[in-house]
Design brief:
heterodimer, A: 522 residues, alpha+beta, Dna Ligase, domain 1, 3 domains, five-stranded antiparallel beta sheet, four-stranded antiparallel beta sheet, 28% helix, elongated, B: alpha/beta, Rossmann fold, eight-stranded mixed beta sheet
Chain lengths: 522, 213
């Protein structure tokens, strides 16, 4: 059930951002005679703007839950003049601010940890989080340049118990992944963005409430050009309500169409079309580490975060997976590890346990500087929840696929668990072959008759020549057939007890008359 | 008085001198009526059983064939942990043990074998577990396994060398076996019921081999 209907088909017309009501040329047309706002139906659009102000810092993973005290961290923009893009709390306390030159920051900080600013990584991170937020709405629009994600939540508000509950749930989902969000909710995307940026707690649901909420907002907060802003200040306007009191024509004449368009967008009088986001078809989660990691045990914490993000993202796009690869990135090389489960599962706790046992076996060649989780085969989630099956009590557990093999493989290696598949060859030493996925083996049919003539011994080995036994008990004769590849393989099987009390499974080769030890009777 | 009787019948109550495990303890049939009687119905599920003896191949695994058949046919998996030889599953299948239910787990160190055993016991899909140990093992590891067995519904069998009899063990039941004539002689070193106290060995004759067709 991949949800094709959720994402915009490729043929969707491009977004109509510029639906200006007022042409930029004068003379101005008559103002739209009191365009009635759309009726307040419950299906009315509501927009949620999710801003991620500390994304650059939060994207880096720590190896422990509490950051090392006192080590300031700076994200540095490269270029002719190196600038601080973001500064950790410790760095800010010492006086480093985003935007200042790196040289200035170094003057006040004691050996800060420096990380390069990587806009492409931030961009990708915003898109990944947009995938996570798909669980709250089918219409998600990432705005990576502003480190912001827009969600249309008018239709999902009832499902999540109201806008306030929805906001809280969104906040918690992101917090669980290690991201702090500022969220604004309003009837229009522009107003939602504005409220998010101001950390405004109000959720104006009606047009009237929106006007009331926006009224006291100072004009500096609006995304306007500096010139327009200054011109407005010069005329003595301070707040948004001052602007709304003026007539459109006067405003348009004095400050241009940009301002009118913004006001219309804020109040939802002019629709703003945002294209829908369609998530990538595979899972690819890189994670840079704040510090190098030298021991596999220290990988658990960043890995947990990665797996949680994977779970959230898969939940968002409604997919599941059965196997994933983990790449440990070193300075020069990388180590690739793979894990597979008996059945699809997205739970981070489940995967973390497996990875931990898997990592116990790994000795690090070099310190780890980053992690990358990758899965290219995403599956439809199982129709029955995994939890339902595994908690089935008592004897009803028989339908369950075993989970222990995955754990054992993770610790002892993939070859540690196997089943034996019948190759239907009568020669006992060639009759079976290891099957790496015994969980998936299906019921075997009846035995080939030729396999029965050798008797039902328990243990087999390659034939070993031995001295003729005392008082062998005959079992049966294995005749010639297609399996002997031209060699005379006729054998008389027998059973005998050796001086130690072992019950040997033997055969006498009819061609040579010699005796061979084939295994143990049991 | 009736209340007292009811209390005494309670399966969780251990009474030192009771001869037979409380009714209702789930078992897998052993296929040998005298052994069933001595074990209190069959191979106990949810218990750790040690089978001590040497050498490998005297019939000590065939002894369990009826139990494995019952377990496999009930839909449970059977784990073989580090057996000293490769099982010939066509032979098992002829005895009614579904071959696709048998899982082979390889591990070199006794520690890993015990760890893998515990994982299997914690998985409700497994109904029987046969593990082979080589040397002396830490009591603490065996205690973990006993706990895992007690919480499971599987019968956990540990094959250990005869020298292990000198070492105390937290297993629920300890049986020592020896090849004797045309069968196996079983001594109970530890366990509930009258068998251990009587000190009498039990002789299990070898089942007659099926003649070839």
């Amino acid at each position: 059930m991949g949800r094709p209907a959720r994402h915009s088909p490729p043929g969707t017309p491009p977004p109509r951002h510029q639906l200006s009501l007022i042409p930029d040329t004068s003379p101005l047309p008559a103002p739209e005679p009191s365009r009635p706002p759309p009726p307040d139906a419950t299906g009315h659009d509501h927009w949620m703007a999710v801003e991620l102000p500390h994304l650059a810092l939060e994207q880096l993973a720590r190896s422990e839950p509490t950051p090392a005290r006192g080590t300031p961290l700076l994200i540095v923009e490269s270029g002719p003049r190196q600038r601080v893009h973001a500064a950790s709390r410790a760095a800010r306390r010492a006086g480093a601010r985003p935007g200042i030159a790196l040289a200035d920051a170094l003057a006040v900080l004691d050996t800060p940890h420096l990380v390069d600013y990587d806009p492409a990584a931030l961009h990708a991170q915003v898109e990944r989080l947009a995938g996570v937020l798909l669980q709250f709405s089918d219409h998600v629009h990432p705005e990576p340049a502003a480190q912001r994600i827009m969600l249309e939540v008018g239709r999902s508000r009832r499902l999540f118990g109201g806008l306030e509950a929805l906001r809280e749930q969104t906040r918690q989902t992101l917090a669980a992944l290690g991201f702090h969000a500022r969220i604004g909710l309003a009837r229009s995307p522009a107003a939602a963005r504005l409220l998010a940026g101001l950390r405004h707690p109000e959720i104006p649901e009606t047009a009237e409430a929106l006007r009331r909420t926006l009224g006291p907002i100072p004009l500096q907060a609006l995304p306007l050009s500096a010139a327009t802003c200054e011109a407005l200040q010069a005329t003595g306007l301070r707040r948004l309500e001052d602007l709304l009191r003026l007539s459109r024509e006067a405003l348009a004449q004095r400050h241009g169409a940009e301002l009118i368009r913004l006001l219309d967008q804020l109040l939802g009088r002019q629709p703003e079309t945002l294209p829908r986001f369609s998530p990538a078809a595979e899972l690819d989660l890189p994670l840079r580490l704040e510090h190098e990691i030298h021991a596999t045990t220290a990988l658990a914490f960043p890995l947990k975060r990665l797996l949680r993000q994977a779970e959230a993202q898969l939940r968002g796009i409604g997919r599941s997976l059965q196997g994933m690869a983990l790449e440990l990135q070193h300075r020069e090389t990388r180590t690739r590890l793979e894990l597979a489960l008996g059945e699809p599962d997205i739970r981070a706790t489940q995967w973390l346990e497996l990875w931990q046992t898997r990592l116990e076996r790994v000795t690090l060649k070099a310190p780890v500087i980053g992690l990358r989780l990758h899965a290219d085969r995403l599956l439809d989630p199982p129709t029955t929840s995994a939890a339902l099956l595994t908690t089935a009590p008592g004897d009803h557990a028989t339908a369950t696929l075993p989970t222990a093999p995955a754990r054992i493989r993770a610790r002892l290696g993939n070859a540690a668990v196997c089943g034996l598949e019948n190759r239907r060859t009568p020669l006992p030493e060639a009759a079976q072959r290891p099957c790496p996925q015994p969980e998936a083996l299906h019921h075997t049919d009846t035995l080939p008759a030729a396999q029965g003539v050798c008797g039902n011994a328990f243990w087999v080995q390659e034939p070993v020549s031995i001295a003729p036994p005392v008082a062998p008990q005959p079992l049966g004769r294995l005749e010639d057939g297609w399996w002997d590849h031209g060699h005379d393989q006729r054998r008389d099987y027998a059973l005998a007890r050796d001086p130690h009390g072992r019950r040997l499974w033997l055969f006498r080769c009819l061609r040579s008359g010699r005796w061979f030890h084939q295994g143990y009777w049991g | 008085m009736a209340a007292l009787d009811a209390l005494l019948e309670h399966p969780a109550l251990w009474r030192g001198r009771s001869t037979v495990p409380p009714a209702g303890t789930p078992v897998w049939p052993s296929g040998h009526p005298p052994l069933d009687h001595a074990l209190g119905g069959g191979w106990p599920r949810g218990q750790l059983v040690e089978l001590l003896g040497a050498p490998f191949g005297c019939g000590e695994t065939r002894l369990l064939a009826p139990m494995l058949a019952a377990c496999g046919q009930a839909g449970y998996r059977i784990a073989l942990i580090a057996p000293p030889a490769t099982p010939w599953l066509p032979g098992w299948q002829a005895l009614g043990i579904p071959a696709e239910r048998v899982l082979l787990i390889r591990a070199d160190a006794d520690r890993d074998r015990l760890w893998a055993s515990e994982q299997c016991l914690r998985d409700p899909a497994f109904g029987a577990l046969l593990a082979w140990l080589q040397g002396p093992v830490e009591i603490a590891l065996l205690r973990r396994l006993r706990l895992a067995a007690a919480e499971s519904r599987a019968c956990a069998i540990l094959y250990r060398p005869p020298q292990a009899a000198q070492q105390p063990s937290p297993a629920h039941q300890r049986l020592q076996w020896q090849p004797a004539g045309n069968g196996l002689r079983l001594h109970s070193l530890k366990g509930r019921g009258g068998w251990t106290r009587s000190g009498q060995p039990l002789h299990i004759p070898d089942p007659q081999p099926l003649p070839g067709t």
